[in-house]
Design a protein that fits this description.
It contains 14 helices and 9 strands. It is an alpha/beta fold. It has 2 domains: 76 residues, Orthogonal Bundle (Arc Repressor Mutant, subunit A), CATH 1.10.10; 248 residues, 3-Layer(aba) Sandwich (Rossmann fold), CATH 3.40.50.150. It has a 7-stranded mixed sheet, sandwiched between helices.
C-alpha cells in the first residue's frame, strides 16, 4: 500500500521559509562575525557605549563605509543595538562577553573558525560521503585546529579545575600532592596546560597522533611556563607509553576515535589500580528525539562533518558520533572492562563521566 501523501500546509511552509531565511542570514553573517574579531571591531565597541559608524571606524582603524554595512548587518542580527535617532550602534555587555572578551567563559569566536574550516573541506567530505570512506582529523583545513583550541579553551578554563575535577572521587587530592596524568588526544594542549598550572606537583603527559598539534602544544606550554611538568609526545590512544597513571583524561575526543573500546582497554592496562578515567564528551541525551534542540543541532552537524568521518578513517571505525550519550559511552567503558561508570557532572555543552577499574 502506497504511503499517504500529506497535503501542502501553507502556514507550515511560511513558517519553514522564515526559519530557512533566518538560517541563511546567520550563515552569511558568520563571516562578518569573524571579520569583527579579525579587524578588532568587537573590541573597539566593547564598553564604549553608543558609537556612530565613524566612531567605530576611528577606534578600529578601518574604513567607515565598510563599518556601516558591517554594523547594520549586526544590528539586523540582534548582535548590536541601533538607535535611529542618533544613528548609533552599541555592543551590549552580554554580546561583548561572547565576541570581545577572550577570557570570558562564553567566548565564541573560535567556534566560527571551526565552522569556516568545514566549508573549506566541503568538496573533500562530499567525496567521502559517496565512497563511504573516512576523513581523518589530519586531513582537515588547519583552521579547524586553531578554531578547536579557541572554542574549547574558555569552557575548560572556566570549569576544568574549579568544577569538573573536584567531582571525581579522590582525584583532586592526588593531583595536589603529585599525580601522574595522561591527557589523550590533547590537541594543542589547552587542557594539559591548565592542569599543569593548577597542580604543579603533578606531571601531565599530553598525547596526540597529530604531530603538528603536539608541536603547537609544546609552544603553548612554554608560553605558559609549565614545560617543567607538562610533557608532550606523538602517540595514539591505543599505544601511548607509560603506566601507573592516577588519572587518564579524554577531552571531547573519545567519540572521534575509530576504536574507542580498544583505546579504553589500553587505558585499563596502564591506569593505576585506584586510578580514574575522566571522559569529557559533548552533552547528549540517550535518544535522538531528546537531542533535537539547538545544542544537538550544532553537535550533529559537527559530528557529520568532523567527528564521524574521523572515526571512520581509523581502524575499526566504530563511528560513535558526537551525540553518543551517557548510556552508549557506558557500554563502551564496560566492554573495556571498567567496572564503575557514572556521570560526575555536566554543563549545557558537556557531559563529564568517570570510569574506574
Amino acid at each position: 500500500m502506497a504511503p499517504a501523501i500529506r497535503e501542502l500546509d501553507e502556514a507550515r511552509l511560511e513558517q519553514f521559509l522564515g526559519q530557512a531565511v533566518t538560517d541563511m542570514g546567520a550563515a552569511m553573517n558568520g563571516v562578518l562575525v569573524m571579520l569583527g574579531g579579525q579587524l578588532g571591531l568587537w573590541k573597539a565597541m566593547a564598553g564604549a557605549g553608543p558609537l556612530t559608524a565613524a566612531d567605530i571606524a576611528e577606534r578600529s582603524g578601518v574604513r567607515e563605509r565598510y563599518v556601516r554595512e558591517w554594523a547594520s548587518a549586526q544590528a539586523a542580527s540582534g548582535y548590536l543595538e541601533y538607535d535611529p535617532a542618533a544613528d548609533s550602534f552599541e555592543l551590549p555587555p552580554e554580546q561583548a562577553m561572547a565576541f570581545a572578551n577572550e577570557d570570558s567563559p562564553v567566548y565564541l569566536l573560535g567556534g566560527y573558525n571551526v565552522i569556516s574550516s568545514t566549508y573549506k573541506d566541503r568538496e573533500k567530505i562530499a567525496e567521502r560521503f559517496r565512497a563511504g570512506e573516512g576523513f581523518g582529523w589530519h586531513e582537515h583545513d588547519p583552521e579547524l585546529f586553531l578554531g578547536t583550541e579557541q572554542f574549547f579553551r574558555p569552557g575548560y578554563r572556566a570549569h576544568l579545575v574549579s568544577e569538573w575535577i573536584p567531582t571525581l572521587e579522590g582525584v583532586e587530592e592526588k593531583l595536589r600532592s603529585g599525580a601522574k596524568v595522561a591527557d589523550i588526544g590533547c590537541g594543542h594542549g589547552i587542557s594539559t596546560v591548565l592542569m599543569a598550572k593548577a597542580y604543579p606537583e603533578s606531571t601531565i603527559h599530553g598525547f596526540d597522533y597529530h604531530a603538528a598539534s603536539i608541536e603547537r602544544a609544546k609552544k603553548v606550554a612554554d608560553a605558559e611556563g609549565v614545560s617543567r611538568n607538562a610533557e608532550f609526545a606523538v602517540a595514539s590512544a591505543k599505544d601511548f607509553p607509560g603506566s601507573g597513571y592516577d588519572l587518564v583524561c579524554f577531552f571531547d575526543c573519545l567519540h572521534d576515535m575509530g576504536d574507542p573500546v580498544g583505546a579504553l582497554r589500553h587505558v585499563r592496562e596502564v591506569v593505576a589500580d585506584d586510578g580514574t578515567v575522566m571522559l569529557v564528551e559533548p552533552f547528549a541525551n540517550d535518544s535522538l528525539a531528546e537531542n533535537l534542540n539547538p545544542v544537538g543541532r550544532i553537535y550533529y552537524a559537527a559530528s557529520t562533518l568532523v567527528c564521524t568521518p574521523s572515526s571512520l578513517d581509523q581502524e575499526v571505525g566504530l563511528g560513535l558520533g558526537a551525540q553518543a550519550g551517557e548510556r552508549r559511552l557506558g557500554q563502551v567503558a564496560a566492554e573495556a572492562r571498567f567496572s564503575r561508570f557514572r556521570r560526575a557532572t555536566e554543563t549545557p555543552f558537556n557531559l563529564v563521566l568517570e570510569a574506574r577499574p
